[in-house]
UniProtKB/TrEMBL annotation, chains A, B:
A Pfam cross-reference name: TetR_C_16
HTH tetR-type domain location: 11-71
UniProt organism field: Pseudonocardia xinjiangensis
Keywords linked to the UniProt accession: DNA-binding, Transcription, Transcription regulation
Name of this chain's protein: TetR/AcrR family transcriptional regulator
Residue numbers spanned by region Disordered: 187-207
DNA-binding region: 34-53
PROSITE patterns reported in the protein's UniProt record: HTH_TETR_2
Length: 207, 207
DNA sequence: CCTCCAAGTCATCAAGCGTTGACATCCTAT
DNA sequence: ATAGGATGTCAACGCTTGATGACTTGGAGG
């Protein structure tokens, strides 16, 4: 973005490689992507991948580790968290979310390492924050079910390509989504709308 | 199971190859599995894969095409459909459901053909049946959201490995699941419970 | 202007891949 | 018993892959 004629720039090359890897891994998965593919997308030689990232696995690790900023999700009222997560999963104006990393990890989930990172990202990131909103009998299970709904929405939109969901905007989905979340988090959907939550001082989820 | 000394049996070899392929593709995805792997699991030579299935892609197609019998899901009362789908997604006694095919397709979803089949299987199979239960304003969207919840539950259990959901039985999930489904299908969760809520007389998913 | 280290490229390796055709082996029908 | 086709095995092919080390090129400092 700065200037094209810049050649021999370590930082820029590193970044270009990383971005190309994110796109490729997200859309095709670990095994279907070759180091040469990524290098060609970035416009450099494949050997640089090994110079900068050590191995193909290192490149994958680097391309999937920067998770979509949980701090961004934790700030704001806790009650609005599900809604914010919904917007993160179904971007309204085509905004670049961390959805690519989720896809890359899912499409590569045959490998134990990818699965482990997916697990970490899910449990420590979203589900822990959601559990704060859930009621007692089976709080974790409730939170994980909300997480499942979000995961399912994201997947159905991006990989299954289900027609109505893929075409819908976040605003259209939200009422239904909210109703489901209320039912899942509250014991029998008794409406836990209150203005003062029980001060959950979570600072969230470190990277 | 019949008898080990049976050698040179076309049907048995074909079946062994297919079963091995289903397992491998489900747990590792298309690209991570080699034809030699599958053949070794089945205890035969890799060349037989090409004799019987034409190509690796043909083997994959054969291993993922037999979808888990939608007829099996359609039989019984329509209102109990979501519950039956839940049981299919979270098998109670470790019964072999068609979950493996779903996993295989998802882990191979970098390939357009796998994606297309996933799309077909989802839309024509489950979502269409679910849409019959949904109310008017946005019937398809409602049905697809229920599908998303099911997909998310399955994935969170089998690949993400979220603790509470992975440990829970279908009976523990069902009340929460039912509440969410009711909220999603009905207009504002107006309670479409008509008959006895908890009398699931089904115990066995089909074969 | 020249030097020199970082940044980038090239040629190459060994291993594994999907795929094929020739070959060996067993079952069956006559 | 024997011929013949079905069933299974083997060795090899061309190609791509991840990875490595020697080489070239560029730009900044003296």
């Amino acid at each position: 973005m700065t200037d094209p004629p810049r050649r021999r720039d370590r930082a820029a090359t590193h970044a270009a490689l990383l971005e190309a890897a994110q796109r490729r891994f997200a859309s095709e998965g670990y095994d279907a992507v070759s180091v040469r593919d990524v290098a060609a997308d970035a416009g450099v030689d494949a050997a640089l991948v090994f110079r900068y990232f050590g191995s193909k696995a290192g490149l994958f690790r680097a391309a999937t580790s920067p998770l979509p900023a949980p701090a961004d999700l934790a700030d704001g009222s806790a009650e609005a968290l599900p809604g914010r997560l919904l917007r993160a999963v179904v971007p309204d104006a085509g905004q670049p979310v961390g959805e690519e990393q989720l896809l890359a990890l899912l499409r590569s989930s045959g490998h134990a390492e990818a699965r482990a990172q997916l697990h970490r990202q899910m449990c420590d990131g979203y589900v822990a924050a959601l559990a704060e909103l859930a009621e007692e009998p089976g709080r974790d299970l409730r939170a994980e079910l909300v997480g499942a709904l979000l995961l399912g929405i994201s997947l159905q939109r991006s990989v299954v390509g289900t027609p109505a969901l893929a075409a819908a905007s976040a605003a259209e989905i939200e009422p239904l989504f909210d109703a489901a979340v209320t039912a899942l988090l509250g014991s029998t959907g008794h409406g836990k709308r209150a203005d003062s939550p029980d001060s959950p001082e979570n600072q969230g989820a470190g990277q």
